[in-house]
Amino acid sequence: MVVLPTSTGYSYACHALQPKAIDKLYRIKGYTNTKRPLAILCADLAEAAKYCRINDGAFRYIREHGGRYTFILPAVGMLPKSIRQRKELGLRLAEHPIALAVLRELQAPLMLASIPCPEDEDPQDLCNPDLIAELNDARHKSEQAALVVDAGIVERRPSTIVDCCSEEYNVIRQG
């Protein structure tokens, strides 16, 4: 489990094919149920096709929009059982060079989760890796990320979420 920069800011990330890592990510987020949605981050559409059903129309749409989008797609393939039981999966494509380098080295997708903002903090403060490291160190050891990758200030911008599971794509959240 690490914190790394993405096109939408710093995020928790873990190996998407390792059940124990995914369980830790759910614990850190405070989720008691693995049916809560998280997204996988892939290096490219070829990798994404191993985990999501991407028809021709969705393929073109995703290729056009990329980066700061999360695409909800039918789940398929090689994900761990705890994730495989879900019918849909959020997909993001890596744009940040550090996230892309990690994905290429790992040769597997990452599971992503946003970093929750404490009530006494400004959400924009989570652009600062030093503050993120402080917040991480304050957590119980079992809920800490092993590493916070310092890429300097990374703007925090939510992704636009698009449901691509039916013929007509539906924007669920504008980023």
TrEMBL record:
Domain of life: Bacteria
Annotated GO MF terms: double-stranded RNA binding
SUPFAM superfamilies named in the record: YrdC/RibB (SSF55821)
Annotated ranges, domain YrdC-like: 1-175
Record protein name field: Hypothetical YciO protein, TsaC/YrdC paralog
Organism placement in taxonomy: Bacteria, Pseudomonadati, Bacteroidota, Bacteroidia, Bacteroidales
